[in-house]
Amino acid sequence: MDLSSPIICLLLHSLVFVSLFYCNNSLETRNPLVNQTFQSEDELLKLKETIAIRLKKLNKPAVKTIQSPDGDIIDCVLTHQQPAFDHPLLKGQKPMDPPEMPKGNNRINNFSESIQLWSLSGESCPNGTIPIRRITEQDLLRANSDSRFGKKLPVGSNDRQYALQFVEDGEFYGAQATMNVWNPQGESKSVFSLAQMWVHPNFYGDRRTRFFIYWTADAYQHGCYNLKCPGFVQTNKAIALGAAISPVSTYNGNQFEISLFVWKDVKTGNWWLRYGDKDLGYWPSSLFTNLKNAAARVHWGGEIFNEQYEQASSTQMGSGHFPEEGYKKASYFNHIYVIDSKRVWVQPPKLKNYADSPNCYNVKGGVDSSWGTYFYYGGPGKNKNCP
């Protein structure tokens, strides 16, 4: 992977995609291997052997295994044996302790917070381990190619729509936001809907809302989700990247949120990720070049991917309702902050709105004493004004 021009989009359009979620893919796939009629039993056997060898390499030895109610298998892997340390720049290293977060108004709301399905029953990984969602044969088949598994493929400029706010032309050393969690509906099995501090999935095989991250070092030409390839160093045993989230918000009902933070440690140059009050881990500074300094741009908002971009999609973004409907009805981000050049959390200056199809999906924001900087976003997609 070319590390010369990093982009992480995780709140920072130069850092990592910490993204939330909303995946609308099914177990079906266009992978020719799935529906192929094999000429002989030997060919089928060879394929199975190839997949078995690949899975053995991808899945690290587990100290403990946990069966999630949604069918996922969570492996508790020793922290020093996690995939990150297979990276040639990280070999021989051990996870670092979390640094102190920069000072500022980075408080977490008192709303009900969503947690992950695999831990609902009280299950947890032992100290000294991290939870990793096990990769399965179906995961590899959905990737269309073994070599592309866990990596984001290049996409066209017309196959996605956005409703977001952003700040640019600055010097940012971190970003944060709280967002309510929904489970949008998609019109087909080949679309997905995201809320992100920035991301996107194509390999989970179900319609559950999930939390995952993505990072790239070459302007999105190549990149990697979660721990599918070496890079992100996880330090927390409570959150499994890529695992399903529960509960989710309901229209005019209970709202459930998560808070995400990304910031640069001035001592090491590493970019840290926090989920609520839990430090999840970091992207080592050695992975990047430009991000050894600051990020110049930060995005928050929603994204829809639609392969049939010639016509509007009826896939929901967020709750599936427009920003004008407001609290308990529309999706939102609030308590939006960035870390400025003085290394303190501040409300971002000159936030800009962007919606490429406002009659399909839109964004509307403001500032108040309770939520600080906030915005509502989303929409139903195809409607009488969005044909």
UniProtKB/TrEMBL annotation:
The keyword Signal applies. Coiled coil: none annotated. Residues 154-387 form the Neprosin PEP catalytic domain. Keywords: Signal. The keyword Signal applies. It holds the Pfam family Neprosin_AP. Residues 1-26 form the signal peptide. InterPro entries: Glutamic_endopeptidase, Neprosin, Neprosin_propep. This is Neprosin PEP catalytic domain-containing protein. It comes from Pisum sativum.
